[in-house]
Amino acid sequence: MNVKVIFFVVGLVFGALAVGLEIGAHGLTGGAPAAADFATQAAHLAPGTAPIDPGTVTRPPGIGISYLALVDGLLLFVLALEGLSVIVSQQRAARIQGIVTLIVSLVWVIVSAVLALVALGLLLLMIGLFVAVPFGTIVYLAKWGFFPVAESAAILSLILLLKLIWGGALVVANPRFLVVKSLVVWFLLSLVLQVVLSFLHGLLPVPVVSIGDALWAIVTAVVALVWAVITLIGAIPAVFKAAHSTADGT
Fold this sequence. Notes:
single chain, mainly alpha, 9 helices
């Protein structure tokens, strides 16, 4: 097998692992009991009352890491299509890219918009409860107040490693990727979104990390939405060109 094809496949595998880990992060973080922490905080806010059983309080999984898959999943798809030229002729790859990109980017626009609204609704709910002292704040703490910072940091570090291997393998497979400025910018933007999310998790006070996490999830979804729209618009001429070439028999 051609060495370039091997590195291309390796890059896609590591990219798929990164995206899969982002999607699965919701099930890998959170769920640990936080009864002691909650009991202490609730006692300060409403002494002598126990509106929520501390034994039912667990650490929330967060949504910020999973939302990174909106950006990285589309990036993985586009890079996979771009890399078809490593396996098949550029002319044949171009015909495939146009229609497939149009369909996938349209779906991505819809999904990104919906998930952005979901995250916005969640953020407004969190803020509304957090400022409703004392009982609203207690409900907020019980649901979102004890974010699993350490577990999320470990997962983000692993995702970053997978992304770096992913990018390096693709460049070895086809250095032309570095010439495509949009892909380079997209990949760097993906890294920036992840690094900022890591900083938010580490710098914010633990009780409000979930709010920062949801806020950055909205930003990530909007970035994915904008990029999906750009990709959708860019795919339209390619579809017409491919259709024209097919009609001409070329």
